[in-house]
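User: Please fill in residues for this 788-position structure.
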């Protein structure tokens, strides 16, 4: 039975044939034939020459294609399509991608569609970014374009991406588990074989243990080592050399030689070295997979930031509707204490809004009729009537999410030293092995295979491939114990090269909690009484400023209580009328105020001033001093535009202050510094910090920060301890030193053992032992990082 030329499945119903480059090829179904016909019609027949795996089965039925038209509906697109002027942008998950040739094929085909402006297929994350002109090209036609060449695409969904990653990790764990268990059993059998070097062991027992080792090693070679064979074949198909090539040659050569020695009872066997080799390589590959994982995690869940439902007002009627169905021009009511469901303009009402999720600042902002409000912000003290100005997909929070995603895609990838050395090392190794075989084939043909095998085994780049991931793993474990969660391994390299540290203010350098720092009464002896009056007035409010006045004793009874949103509160206590609020509301002097102050008025007279501040973290001054001692420049980049930012910068001795910055401003500043040659480390905690955290060379988020900030950062300070940043920098230096030592050992060992193996003085079993020992030395050296 022949196999389908496109998908590789058996052809059970002949008759679907197509001529490709002069050869008639069979196909299993009309779908695969249609896909191949589309590929040929676009002039992309070379796809079949470069692919490293069969394509996806082209069985998308006409009913399925018709269902794609639903994606053209505006109410469907608003959840995942963003607008850029006349163009639209979407991120898609693509099923069926197996190699770089798939990405090439998809991009070439889609660019034939009129109205397509941009497409980029990422073979690592199985995602595609597409931008198009909706007046020329509907989204359904783009999705059909994927189907036409044998792939399925649909709007990116977090859970499917996570499932794919979990499946890949699980596959490595299964392979590694089999290799680990098998290598232990093989090693037990090998003890008997090694004993024959010292004491006499009966021949039948040696043969028995060799056959047992062969049976135990075969599943490891066929299943556990499969990723290396696939990687080697793919590299060779694309005309490149990778470590998988030499690893596969060494594994297959050693296994075939051992099998020959077992079957014909001649020569040495290396089953123990093979199985342990596979186990260590799989361990390194798994660690590498986790370290290099790109932007496959969810940045955040938009549905958790904005309410699912909204109250739409039409005339005298109010209706509860899904927030995502709100259209521009709709009128909505936002109750006190509720979250705003969409961006809009206030029609009626005045309220204080907590915009910390957008600005990072904990102080609410007073908003009045005609002023904007944003989805996800909290209306804390008064109801509002709002007219929707943008749908959720175009809201400010959605824009921040897209900026963060774009910054993640542009994040510089600092290559490890193994990538720089592997190309030349492997090529040189293969050339030397070929030369050794040619020499001995002429001078001693019976020794040519065994000496060449010794060269391949002894110089196999196992230690070289483990040099970086084992060190990074040890460093990561050490950082985790120290309260630093490392999410991307390249942060360790950046820490050693950084020239500037960029710090957010609220929640990073400060505690993020408003506190009462000073009470100044016009009559000092009445300060305690006036403070209790102020606390009584604020007792009913959940405003952050009100929480700063919370006292343990019971508040005084307040009559005629009245809240003026954005200004303050008023009430009658013991027959006297009091007002507590901002200087502007009470017409108090502001000339000498450096921070946040509110005033208390008694019967129309100012009687007390209360100074509030956001306290510095206890470890902030020590951090700044230590960074200065290490020669790093420091910038405070904050959304707070008040005098509080100047006070904090002055008190800490910050080199540069950028205040009142929006998320766009923060990212632009960072890009500007990088353009001038700075290597920047960013530390922040708020949603407004997410784009700049994602765009920095390396970034740290506070554990108490928002989920979006933590998902955008390269590392998380679990204990909210800023001094851990210094510990991470110290460990990064040691990690770099250990990696260099590992490379020096791996390369030095190869240079030392190569002439011994090539001259025939190193038998293959000692070569295998030396290779394993070299790997263990690298692993042991890396484990020293865990003891620092």
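Assistant: Residues filled in for all 788 positions:
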């Amino acid at each position: 039975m022949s196999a389908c030329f496109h998908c590789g499945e058996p052809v059970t119903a002949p008759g679907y044939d197509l001529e490709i480059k002069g050869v008639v090829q069979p196909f299993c179904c009309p779908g695969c034939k249609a896909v191949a016909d589309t590929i040929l019609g676009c002039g992309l027949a070379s796809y079949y020459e470069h692919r490293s795996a069969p394509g996806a089965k082209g069985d998308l039925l006409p009913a399925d294609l018709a269902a794609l038209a639903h994606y053209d509906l505006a109410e469907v697109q608003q959840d995942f399509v963003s607008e850029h002027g006349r163009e639209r942008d979407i991120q898609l998950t693509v099923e069926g991608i197996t190699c770089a040739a798939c990405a090439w094929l998809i991009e070439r085909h889609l660019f034939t569609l009129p109205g397509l402006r941009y497409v980029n297929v990422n073979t690592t994350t199985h995602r595609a970014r597409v931008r198009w002109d909706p007046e020329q090209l509907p989204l359904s036609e783009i999705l059909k374009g994927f189907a036409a060449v044998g792939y399925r695409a649909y709007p990116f969904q977090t859970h499917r991406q996570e499932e794919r990653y979990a499946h890949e990790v699980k596959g490595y764990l299964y392979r590694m588990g089999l290799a680990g268990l098998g290598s232990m059993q093989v090693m037990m059998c090998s003890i008997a074989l090694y004993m024959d070097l010292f004491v006499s062991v009966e021949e039948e027992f040696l043969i028995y243990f060799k056959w047992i080792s062969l049976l135990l090693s075969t599943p490891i070679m066929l299943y556990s080592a499969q990723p290396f064979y696939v990687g080697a074949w793919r590299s060779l198909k694309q005309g490149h050399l990778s470590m998988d090539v030499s690893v596969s040659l060494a594994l297959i050569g050693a296994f075939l030689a051992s099998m020959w020695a077992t079957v014909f009872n001649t020569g040495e066997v290396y089953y123990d070295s093979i199985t342990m080799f596979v186990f260590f390589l799989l361990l390194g590959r798994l660690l590498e997979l986790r370290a290099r994982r790109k932007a496959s995690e969810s940045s955040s869940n938009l549905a958790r930031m904005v309410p699912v439902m909204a109250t739409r007002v039409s005339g005298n009627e109010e209706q509860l509707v899904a927030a995502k169905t709100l259209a521009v021009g709709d009128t909505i009511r936002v109750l006190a204490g509720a979250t705003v469901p969409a961006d809009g303009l206030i029609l009626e009402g005045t309220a204080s809004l907590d915009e910390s999720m957008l600005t990072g600042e904990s102080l609410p902002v007073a908003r009045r009729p005609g002023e904007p409000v944003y989805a996800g912000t909290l209306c804390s003290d008064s109801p509002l009537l709002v007219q929707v100005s943008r749908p959720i997909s175009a809201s400010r929070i959605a824009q921040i999410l897209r900026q963060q995603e774009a910054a993640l895609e542009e994040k510089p990838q600092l290559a490890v030293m193994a990538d720089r050395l592997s190309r030349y090392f492997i090529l040189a190794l293969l050339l030397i092995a070929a030369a050794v075989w040619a020499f001995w084939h002429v001078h001693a043909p019976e020794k040519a295979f065994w000496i060449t095998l010794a060269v391949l085994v002894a110089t196999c780049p196992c230690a070289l491939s483990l040099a970086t991931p084992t060190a990074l793993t040890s460093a990561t474990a050490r950082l985790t114990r120290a309260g630093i969660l490392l999410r991307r391994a390249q942060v360790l390299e950046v820490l050693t090269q950084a020239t500037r540290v960029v710090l957010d203010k609220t929640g990073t350098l400060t505690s993020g909690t408003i506190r009462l720092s000073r009470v100044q009464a016009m009559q000092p002896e009445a300060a305690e009484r006036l403070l209790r009056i102020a606390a009584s007035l604020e007792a009913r409010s959940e405003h952050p400023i009100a929480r700063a006045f919370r006292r343990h004793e019971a508040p005084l009874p307040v009559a005629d209580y009245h809240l003026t949103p954005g200004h303050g509160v008023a009430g009658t206590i013991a027959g006297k009328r009091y007002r507590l609020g901002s200087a502007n509301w009470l017409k108090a002097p502001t000339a000498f105020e450096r921070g946040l102050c509110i005033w208390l008025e008694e019967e129309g007279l100012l009687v007390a001033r209360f100074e509030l501040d956001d306290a510095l973290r206890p470890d902030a001054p020590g951090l700044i001093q230590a960074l200065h001692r290490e020669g790093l420049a420091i910038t405070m980049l904050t959304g707070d535009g008040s005098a509080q930012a100047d006070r904090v910068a002055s008190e800490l001795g910050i080199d540069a202050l950028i205040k009142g910055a929006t998320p766009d401003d923060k990212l632009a500043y960072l890009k500007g510094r990088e353009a001038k040659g700075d290597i920047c480390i960013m530390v922040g905690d708020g949603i407004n910090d997410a784009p700049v955290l994602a765009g920095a060379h390396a970034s740290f988020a506070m554990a108490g920060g928002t989920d979006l900030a933590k998902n955008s950062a390269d590392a998380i300070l679990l204990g909210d301890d800023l001094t851990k940043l210094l510990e991470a920098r110290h460990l990064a230096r040691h990690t770099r030193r250990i990696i260099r030592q590992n490379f020096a050992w791996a390369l030095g060992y190869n240079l030392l053992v190569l002439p011994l193996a090539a001259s025939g003085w190193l038998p293959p079993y000692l070569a295998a032992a030396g290779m394993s020992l070299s790997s263990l030395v690298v692993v042991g050296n890396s484990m020293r990082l865990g003891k620092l």
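For context: The chain has a mean pLDDT of 78.
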